Each structure stands twice: as structure tokens, then as C-alpha cells.
Amino acid sequence: MANQLESLVATIKSKVRALKKSKKSSNKPYIKMDKSSSIKVEIRSRKARQLIDRTLEAADRPGKRTVS
């Protein structure tokens, strides 16, 4: 039982050391994941909504013609 406990503690210590070393070498604490198709659709619809809002604001001001 004592050997198993010592082995477990040694394993945990080595994993902690490895994590500390990897954090020093890499600034990213996480792995960047690709966007799913639903997230891409959400982003596209949000951008479209913003464009529509800007267009409507420009339409409310007939003196200015720029829509940017």
C-alpha cells in the first residue's frame, strides 16, 4: 500500500513539473479549437444584422450618402 501511494505521489509530482515547464515554454494555456458551423452562421448573421442596422441609419439621414 505504501509503495502504491509513493508511486502515485511521484506521478503527480512529475505531472505538475511537466505542466509548469510547458506553461513557461508556451504562452497559450489552452488549445485553440476550430469554430463549428453553427458558430460560423451566428457570426455571419450578427455581421449581417450590423450591416442592416448601419444601412437603415444611413437611410434615415437622406442628406448623407455614405454607408460604411
Automatic annotation (TrEMBL):
MF annotations from Gene Ontology: carboxypeptidase activity
PANTHER family named among the record's database cross-references: BNACNNG33880D PROTEIN (PTHR34563), OS08G0416800 PROTEIN (PTHR34563:SF6)
Protein name in the entry: Serine carboxypeptidase-like 18
Organism: Hibiscus syriacus (Rose of Sharon)
Origin organism lineage: Eukaryota, Viridiplantae, Streptophyta, Embryophyta, Tracheophyta
